[in-house]
Each structure stands twice: as structure tokens, then as C-alpha cells.
Design brief:
Blueprint lengths: L3 E9 L3 E10 L7 E11 L3 E3 L2 E3 L2 H18 L4 E5 L5 E4 L20 H6 L4 H8 L8 H8 L3 H5 L2 E4 H10 L4 E2 H4 L5 E2 L4 E2 L1 H6 L10 E2 L4 E4 L2 H7 L6 E3 L5 H7 L8 E6 L3 E7 L6 H5 L3 E4 L5 E7 L3 H10 L8 H10 L20 H11 L8 H27 L5 E5 L6 H11 L3 E3 L4 H13 L7 H11 L3 E3 L6 H10 L2
Helix pairs in contact: 10-17, 13-15, 15-16
């Protein structure tokens, strides 16, 4: 039994990555100490080459190595774990070489692929096997778009992004289940790859590696990688909830099971934690997804476009060389007229990069609403619309699952946005508990610590530790605003 461990959480998001050093103290019954130190942060900037949007994966790998070097200077590491976004992958050949830079899920190559796949496998059958909502970004549609390409023909193995980076560190291939479940090629009932579904859609099953569970040892770090990272030779690399939402949900500081969560970043994942998937026809029609979580739980949720809308607006406004600061914009938005114009954040027209302010304005006008009057009103439109989308998802997840939520927990970067937290409480008519901001890294760290026999042994214990140590804020709903939110919801229904 260990009295304490220091581990490094590598957390990669759609806009940036960071390496967090985490110290967890105590054994299974204790675990009363939890300390985080940010070791490194680096941007994640995609690159367009000949019309295709790629991830700059080697730059990300360099950021990981530099971050680990910085973490090792903070304190000797006991292990490393990597989490990242879902659905995207790299292909490696039989020699272990990467066959081209991974393509970004926002690339246009998946246009029309949903219809092509559904012509082979009915939507009802696809959902009954995978439990995954229909999104054009899903791995199944990306692979349909890659059919017949030289890279896919030459591939020996498909590695999701965190598994690819772990492979470069250790030389070991595999697929961690919480991320595998996002591909729409994983059998949520059987807990295996859906090989029959792959065969039906013309996807070669042989490229999918063996599945791994969170907390398993992937392998020791290779000597060359360890030297590059400045860590001791043979440092263990451990699986965590390698889908960032799986790690974030593990760090929701809830007490009991009656809670909804919003993991809020570039995407917002809105749902509840269940013991079993919900595969009903009503669930399929509502486009809810069943993804695997830590300890065999089910992340029953809906993807909402999230802070991407706001991030793209800020990027567009900053494009003339005059950086725009978000804090003053949010302060001005808080003073702007509420619910003047609202949009559906899930509109596919908002998926690709580009002039987001123009697209939002056009969507408002098409809906017969007034155009946002200036930047503050446009930001207010985004925040109001996200709160409405959260309201709809929180109501639907309760109805579809047959479970009641008495609190909404917002974790991740969006938990710092006080306007969003308050408007979410108002829209949902439920208290909102905001924090921790670093939920993904915390979930990553706690699963690693548990693999060393240190810290809480189960999710309830992890969450109790977080309630005792994390900075949390509570937002009570303004119930008098309920009629206005109900009327606004009807405008985008």
C-alpha cells in the first residue's frame, strides 16, 4: 500500500494540451490529500494541406514530451496517463510508421457519409449495437470516407489519438474502452469491437487493436522516449479514462446518483451517469449517446456544440491583429437584453471553422429574429442558446433514463463562466454546482493513483475527495424567469 504517488496527466483538448503533475496522498481508506501543479501547456493548432484539415500530431507529441520533462522537474513521477478527444485516429503500417497526419473531425470529408453508411446498416440496427448518436464526426463515417485510400489499404492498426501517443511512448498498441466506445464501432452491450458491423460497412476489422480498461499498465516507457521526456527509464504508462469526458465525469464532485453533468469545453457533453445503456427508440430519436465510463458505468449524454461557438467568434474578431479579451465581452453580455435572439447550437452549419459571427447572425435572421446588435449581444445570444440546449438535454436525459436529477454539475473550462453557469441554473430550474475546472486532469490522476494502490478505490471515494478539496461554486435558479425560458425554447424547437 502506497502512502502517496506523483503522476503526470497528459490532457489534450481540441484547442490545446497540458501536462499536470498530481500528488495523491493516502491509501484506499484515506486519500485526503490531492495537489495539482501545471507543468506545461501548448496550443493545438490544426493545419490545412491541399484542402484537408489535419491535426499537427507531431507538434502535440513534442508538447507532451516537453510537458513531461517539466513535470519530472517538479517531482519524480510514478506513472503517466493520457486522455484526449474522441473519434479521431492515426493509422500505422506493419513497420509501426504513421501513415499520414490524422485528419481533423471537422474536415469536410465526411459530408454525405452518414447516408452512405445508413444505406448499408439501418439507423435502428446501428443504434441497437453501439448506442451512439448520429454525428458526422464519428469514426465510422470517417472510415467510410477513407475507404479505398492507400493509407487504409496499408494500415496494420488504427490507434485513437491517446492510444497513438501512448504507442509512441511505449511501443504497445491497444484501444482504451472509454474512447473506443465513441467510434460507433464498439458493441456497447457485449463490450467488444462490433466486428459484424465493420464487415457490413466495408471497414477492415483486423486493424482494430485489443481493448484495454482504465487503470491497466500499457507498458514501460521506451528508453528513447524517456530520455526525450527527461523521466526515469521504464516509467509506467497507464491507461486512464482516455476519452477526456470519461475522465471529467469521474471527477464530477456529486454526492449520490441524482445528478446531471455538463462537461463544458469546446464541446459540451450533457448527461447522466447510468449503470446500463438506454437503447430505446425514443433515445435514438432524441440522439442520445451511450459511451463507456470508468468502472463500467455508462455516460448517457448528448453532444452540444459548446464553447466552440464563442471560441470561433473570438478568433474571427481577433483576426485583424487586435486580440479580443473574453472577460469584458462576457461582462457586457451579462448586461445585454436576455433571450432577444437564440439559435440551435447543434446546427451543422456551425461545425466547420470560419466566420462564426456571420453564421450566427444569418441563423437569427433566417429564424425571423432580430440580428444581434454588436458583439455583446452576439455573445449573449450564444450563452442564452447554450443554456437552452442544456435545458433541453437535462430534461430529456431524465425522461429517457427514468432518473431524476436534483443538481446540475458543470465541470471543465466552462465552469469558470459565471454567466453561463447562472443562465444554465435559470434555464434548467435546478441548482448548478460549478467546478472543478481541471476535472479531466483530476479524473486522469485519480485513476492512475488507484492503479498504484493509492487514494480512493471507487468513484464515490474519488468524488468525496474532490468535494473536500476542490473549489466549487453554487448557482441558484431565478425561478421567476421560467416562463421566459419556456417561451424561448419554443422558438428553436
Amino acid at each position: 500500500m502506497s502512502s502517496g504517488v506523483t503522476v503526470a496527466a497528459v490532457d489534450l483538448g481540441a484547442s490545446g494540451g497540458r501536462v499536470i503533475s498530481g500528488r495523491v496522498g493516502g491509501g484506499r481508506a484515506g486519500g485526503g490529500r490531492l495537489e495539482l501543479t501545471e507543468a506545461g501547456r501548448f496550443p493545438n493548432v490544426p493545419v490545412t494541406v491541399h484542402g484537408t484539415l489535419h491535426w499537427d500530431i507531431l507538434r502535440l507529441y513534442r508538447g507532451v514530451l516537453e510537458g513531461l520533462r517539466a513535470a519530472a522537474r517538479i517531482g519524480e513521477l510514478d506513472s503517466v496517463g493520457i486522455d484526449a478527444w474522441g473519434v479521431d485516429y492515426g493509422l500505422i503500417d506493419h513497420s509501426g510508421a504513421l501513415l499520414g497526419n490524422p485528419v481533423h473531425y471537422r474536415d469536410a470529408r465526411t459530408t454525405g457519409m452518414m447516408a452512405s453508411v445508413l444505406a448499408r446498416v439501418p439507423a435502428t440496427e446501428l443504434y441497437a449495437v453501439t448506442g451512439i448518436q448520429q454525428l458526422p464526426i464519428n469514426t465510422i463515417f470517417q472510415l467510410a470516407a477513407a475507404a479505398g485510400t492507400p493509407q487504409l489499404r496499408a494500415a496494420a492498426s488504427l490507434l485513437l489519438i491517446p492510444d497513438l501517443l501512448s504507442y509512441w511512448l511505449t511501443g504497445e498498441t491497444g484501444a482504451e474502452v472509454t474512447n473506443a466506445s465513441t467510434t460507433q464501432l464498439y458493441d456497447i452491450g457485449a463490450g467488444t469491437w462490433a466486428t459484424r458491423l465493420m464487415q457490413q460497412t466495408g471497414i477492415p476489422p483486423g486493424i482494430f487493436p485489443a481493448l484495454r480498461q482504465p487503470g491497466e499498465l500499457i507498458g514501460p516507457m521506451l528508453a528513447g522516449a524517456a530520455a526525450e521526456a527527461g523521466v526515469r527509464p521504464g516509467l509506467p504508462v497507464v491507461t486512464v479514462g482516455s476519452h477526456d469526458t470519461a475522465s471529467a465525469v469521474a471527477a464530477v464532485p456529486a454526492s449520490g446518483g441524482n445528478f446531471a453533468y455538463i462537461s463544458c469545453g469546446t464541446w459540451s457533453l450533457v448527461g447522466m451517469e447510468l449503470d446500463q445503456p438506454v437503447l430505446s427508440e425514443a433515445s435514438r430519436r432524441e440522439n442520445f449517446t451511450n459511451e463507456t465510463g470508468i468502472d463500467g458505468t455508462i455516460r448517457y449524454l448528448r453532444n452540444v456544440m459548446g464553447l466552440w461557438l464563442l471560441q470561433e467568434c473570438v478568433r474571427t474578431w481577433s483576426g485583424a491583429g487586435r486580440p479580443v479579451r473574453l472577460e469584458p465581452l462576457l461582462a457586457a453580455a451579462a448586461r445585454a437584453a436576455p433571450l432577444r435572439c437564440v439559435i440551435d447550437p447543434g446546427d451543422p452549419g456551425f461545425l466547420a471553422p470560419g466566420d462564426m459571427p456571420a453564421r450566427i447572425t444569418a441563423a437569427c435572421v433566417r429564424a425571423g429574429q432580430p440580428a444581434p446588435a454588436g458583439r455583446a449581444q452576439l455573445v449573449r445570444c450564444i450563452i442564452d442558446s447554450l443554456a437552452l440546449a442544456y435545458r433541453q438535454a437535462v430534461a430529456a436525459v431524465q425522461e429517457l433514463s427514468g432518473r431524476h436529477a436534483d443538481t446540475v454539475h458543470i465541470v471543465g473550462g466552462g465552469s469558470r463562466n459565471e454567466l453561463l453557469c447562472q443562465l444554465t441554473a435559470d434555464a434548467c430550474g435546478l441548482p448548478v454546482v460549478a467546478g472543478p475546472v481541471e476535472a479531466t486532469a483530476l479524473g486522469n490522476i485519480l485513476v492512475q493513483a488507484r492503479s498504484h494502490g493509492c487514494g480512493p478505490a471507487d468513484l464515490d471515494g474519488m468524488r468525496a475527495l474532490l468535494r473536500a478539496t476542490a473549489e466549487l461554486r453554487r448557482f441558484e435558479p431565478n425561478r421567476g424567469d421560467a416562463p421566459a425560458w419556456a417561451a424561448a425554447a419554443r422558438r428553436i424547437s
